[in-house]
């Protein structure tokens, strides 16, 4: 070791660390590699401004952009049993849950809210892929049922944004039973004559696709979203051949008659409003961003939690 | 007789007894009966021992046993006037799902089930019991027929899962399964299900969203195969024993969780060692389950089925 490494380097290091730039100011687009500034990216709803690649977006950010004035109220979801199978793989299930809660600040993989989009009352639910791959367990099942019940109660449509790796293995058969359970929720809406629009986002796979995510009255997907029952890797292993380019992507599904539309995230709100108002037999909406609704439309609402806010308690434990 | 990996010691003893008897047939002077009988006795004790407390992974192996009675055997054994109905009126007839009109105890019903096949030729024809969208759409069509003509629906579940293939995905595997589950929930007629072997994930749910669900003692029903679960959570497909344990996929655990209504006892050594008895036991169970539902009004049946699934998840298992 010479005197430089012993002596000078520590000083340089301390100098740098003091001015260190926060790491998350720039995001690299996984598709085209463009470096995107965080504020710009957020304004663009996490869509790459160069190549239009749709990155993941948290339910809260999505809802903030969708509802008038960015205001929505959370709908309460009944809490299921915490660890019904006492499941343990390399980690215990409650430990995985805790890690997911700490990482996302959310309590589970789905957020249900209500509010107005262009003055159209809507109940909306969104799956959070960053929370254990958005996997469908009992909570997600309860969330969809709660969303459907709320929509029926308020006589308004349900918009659901799906994103999931599939069923939550740690809840075993009980996660599989969410397929019929969530289908019952869809039935409730049908019987009440209320529209159910499903927006499939990247990625929507497995038992989720094979239940509520494919049962919408209108099926919309975000561009290039992977939508499938069996994932491409499983298929390649089974049939032992390479799959064609774009296989199981939104546009491919559209071509094969499995979707109604593929819609860019920035046009989603307007499109949803247009469709919903026609299905609900309402006059066309006023275009553009609207301020928050002045009066609460329904009196029986639970005491309004602070707008947009309702900050989730960090990890319930 | 096909022996499973864990039955190897048994195969040795039974093999020896068989050998002795073969020898005696060749040589009339030899008296081996006493020795052979002793071996038989030993084999029986061992069999009892092996099957007394099957681990979940061993249950998976028994559930997949090639000599187990399959859907076709139950249909032939329990129904009369079976009239298979084919096709989804759209694309093809899927042989992984069989079904049609039949009489059960002289009463007309619609019976549907997954058939795995019993030799190489039929297995390939049946695609190992893995249905494509056409299969589920055929099932939907048959359920609809039952609904309109007020016939009870009986389903027999035995599938490793829905087929993960290119064409299946292109033709909407997920949508077909979702619609089949939805159709089950709409039926204004009694619907009962027996899981006779493997209940493989969504491919099973599509035919098993019923008013009453029974499982054979050594059958399994799971969200994912133990191999699949092991390769995802343990990153090692060889950890299927641990995964089978963790998934709680046995009939016994599912009964405790309130997911199924009854367990049908299998003969000693599994259904493959007493095919006829098993078929009859399944028949009895179907009869009892239908009895609980006959005379019920359409609305009651729909509501009963819905509530059954809405209520699931209130019971957990102890460590």
TrEMBL record, chain A:
Q: Which SUPFAM superfamilies match?
A: ClpP/crotonase
Reaction catalysed by this chain? N(6)-carboxybiotinyl-L-lysyl-[protein] + acetyl-CoA = N(6)-biotinyl-L-lysyl-[protein] + malonyl-CoA
Q: Which Gene3D superfamilies match?
A: 2-enoyl-CoA Hydratase, Chain A, domain 1
Tell me the compartments it is located in. Cytoplasm
Q: Where is the CoA carboxyltransferase N-terminal domain?
A: 25-294
Give the cofactor note: Binds 1 zinc ion per subunit.
Binding sites annotated in the UniProt record for Zn(2+): 29, 32, 48, 51
Name the source's superkingdom: Bacteria
Question: Pathway it acts in?
Answer: Lipid metabolism; malonyl-CoA biosynthesis; malonyl-CoA from acetyl-CoA: step 1/1
State its cofactor: Zn(2+)
Report any one BP term from Gene Ontology: fatty acid biosynthetic process
Class of enzymatic activity (EC top level): transferase
State its Enzyme Commission number(s).
Answer: 2.1.3.15
The UniProt subunit note reads as follows:
Acetyl-CoA carboxylase is a heterohexamer composed of biotin carboxyl carrier protein (AccB), biotin carboxylase (AccC) and two subunits each of ACCase subunit alpha (AccA) and ACCase subunit beta (AccD).
Q: Which family does it belong to?
A: Belongs to the AccD/PCCB family.
Q: What does this protein do?
A: Component of the acetyl coenzyme A carboxylase (ACC) complex. Biotin carboxylase (BC) catalyzes the carboxylation of biotin on its carrier protein (BCCP) and then the CO(2) group is transferred by the transcarboxylase to acetyl-CoA to form malonyl-CoA.
What is the name attached to this protein's record?
Acetyl-coenzyme A carboxylase carboxyl transferase subunit beta
Tell me the gene name. Answer: accD
UniProtKB/TrEMBL annotation, chain B:
Q: In which pathway does it act?
A: Lipid metabolism; malonyl-CoA biosynthesis; malonyl-CoA from acetyl-CoA: step 1/1
Q: Which Pfam families match?
A: ACCA
Instruction: Identify one Gene Ontology CC term for this UniProt entry.
Output: acetyl-CoA carboxylase complex
Q: Does the keyword Lipid metabolism apply?
A: yes
Q: Which UniProt keywords apply?
A: ATP-binding, Cytoplasm, Fatty acid biosynthesis, Fatty acid metabolism, Lipid biosynthesis, Lipid metabolism, Nucleotide-binding, Transferase
Q: Which GO terms of the molecular function aspect are on file? A: acetyl-CoA carboxylase activity; ATP binding; carboxyl- or carbamoyltransferase activity
Matching SUPFAM superfamilies, A to Z? ClpP/crotonase (SSF52096)
Which chemical reaction does it catalyze?
N(6)-carboxybiotinyl-L-lysyl-[protein] + acetyl-CoA = N(6)-biotinyl-L-lysyl-[protein] + malonyl-CoA
- Top EC class per UniProt? transferase
Choose any GO biological process term that the UniProt entry carries and state it. Answer: malonyl-CoA biosynthetic process
InterPro entries associated with the record: Acetyl_CoA_COase_a_su, ClpP/crotonase-like_dom_sf, COA_CT_C
Q: Lipid metabolism among the record's keywords?
A: yes
Q: Where does the UniProt annotation locate this protein?
A: Cytoplasm
The CoA carboxyltransferase C-terminal domain covers which part of the protein?
38-292
What Enzyme Commission number(s) does the record list for this chain?
Answer: 2.1.3.15
Tell me its family.
Belongs to the AccA family.
Q: How does it assemble?
A: Acetyl-CoA carboxylase is a heterohexamer composed of biotin carboxyl carrier protein (AccB), biotin carboxylase (AccC) and two subunits each of ACCase subunit alpha (AccA) and ACCase subunit beta (AccD).
Q: What does this protein do?
A: Component of the acetyl coenzyme A carboxylase (ACC) complex. First, biotin carboxylase catalyzes the carboxylation of biotin on its carrier protein (BCCP) and then the CO(2) group is transferred by the carboxyltransferase to acetyl-CoA to form malonyl-CoA.
By what name is this protein known?
Acetyl-coenzyme A carboxylase carboxyl transferase subunit alpha
Organism of origin is: Cereibacter ovatus
Q: Mind giving the lineage of the organism this protein is from?
A: Bacteria, Pseudomonadati, Pseudomonadota, Alphaproteobacteria, Rhodobacterales
């Amino acid at each position: 070791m010479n005197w430089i490494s012993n002596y000078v380097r520590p000083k340089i290091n301390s100098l740098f660390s003091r001015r260190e730039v926060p790491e998350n100011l720039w995001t690299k687009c996984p598709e085209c590699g463009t470096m995107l500034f965080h504020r710009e990216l957020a304004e663009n709803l996490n869509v790459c401004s160069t190549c239009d690649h749709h990155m993941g977006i948290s339910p809260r950010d999505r809802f903030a952009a969708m509802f008038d004035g960015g205001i929505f109220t959370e709908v309460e979801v009944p809490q299921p049993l915490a660890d019904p199978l006492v499941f343990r793989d390399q980690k215990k299930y409650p430990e995985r849950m805790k890690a997911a809660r700490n990482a996302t600040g959310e309590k589970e993989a789905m957020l249900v809210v209500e509010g107005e989009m262009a003055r159209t009352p809507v109940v909306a639910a969104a799956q959070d892929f960053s929370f254990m791959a958005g996997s469908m367990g009992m909570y997600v099942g309860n969330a969809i049922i709660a969303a459907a019940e709320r929509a029926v109660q308020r006589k308004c449509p349900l918009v659901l944004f799906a994103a999931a790796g599939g069923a939550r293995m740690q809840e075993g058969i009980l996660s599989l039973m969410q397929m019929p359970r969530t289908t019952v929720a869809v039935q409730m809406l049908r019987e009440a004559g209320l529209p159910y629009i499903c927006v499939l986002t990247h990625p929507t796979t497995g038992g989720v696709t094979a239940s509520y995510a494919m049962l919408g009255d209108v099926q919309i997907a975000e561009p290039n979203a992977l939508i499938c029952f069996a994932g491409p890797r499983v298929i390649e292993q089974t049939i032992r051949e390479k799959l064609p380019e774009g296989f199981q992507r939104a546009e491919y599904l559209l071509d094969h008659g499995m979707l109604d539309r593929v819609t860019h995230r920035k046009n989603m709100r307007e499109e949803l409003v247009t469709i919903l108002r026609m299905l609900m037999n309402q006059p066309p909406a006023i275009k553009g961003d609207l301020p928050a609704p002045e009066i609460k439309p329904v009196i029986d609402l639970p005491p309004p939690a602070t707008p947009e806010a309702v900050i989730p308690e960090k990890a319930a434990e | 007789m096909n022996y499973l990996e864990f039955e190897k010691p048994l195969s040795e003893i039974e093999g020896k007894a068989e050998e002795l008897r073969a020898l005696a047939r060749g040589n009339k002077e030899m008296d081996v009966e006493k020795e052979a009988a002793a071996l038989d006795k030993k084999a029986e004790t061992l069999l009892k021992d092996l099957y007394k407390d099957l681990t979940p992974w061993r249950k998976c192996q028994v559930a997949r046993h090639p000599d187990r009675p399959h859907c076709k055997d139950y249909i032939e054994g329990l129904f009369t006037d079976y009239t298979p109905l084919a096709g989804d009126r759209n694309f093809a007839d899927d042989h992984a799902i069989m079904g049609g009109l039949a009489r059960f105890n002289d009463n007309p019903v619609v019976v549907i089930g997954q058939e795995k096949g019993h030799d190489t030729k039929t297995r390939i024809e049946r695609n190992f019991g893995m249905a494509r969208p056409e299969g589920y759409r055929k099932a939907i069509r048959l359920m609809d027929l039952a609904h309109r003509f007020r016939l009870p629906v009986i389903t027999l579940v035995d599938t490793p899962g829905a087929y993960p293939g290119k064409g299946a995905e292109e033709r909407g595997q997920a949508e077909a399964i979702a619609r089949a589950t939805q159709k089950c929930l709409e039926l204004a007629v009694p619907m009962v299900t027996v899981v006779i072997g493997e209940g493989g994930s969504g491919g099973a749910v599509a035919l098993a969203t019923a008013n009453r669900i029974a499982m054979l003692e050594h059958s399994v029903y799971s969200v994912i195969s133990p191999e699949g679960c092991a390769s995802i959570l343990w990153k090692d497909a060889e950890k299927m024993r641990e995964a089978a344990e963790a998934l709680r996929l046995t009939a016994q655990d599912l009964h405790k969780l309130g997911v199924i209504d009854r367990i049908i006892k299998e003969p000693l050594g599994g259904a493959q060692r007493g095919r006829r008895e098993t078929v009859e036991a399944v028949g009895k169970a179907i009869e009892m389950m239908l009895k609980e539902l006959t005379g019920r009004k359409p609305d009651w049946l729909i509501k009963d089925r819905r509530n059954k699934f809405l209520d699931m998840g209130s019971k957990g298992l102890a460590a």
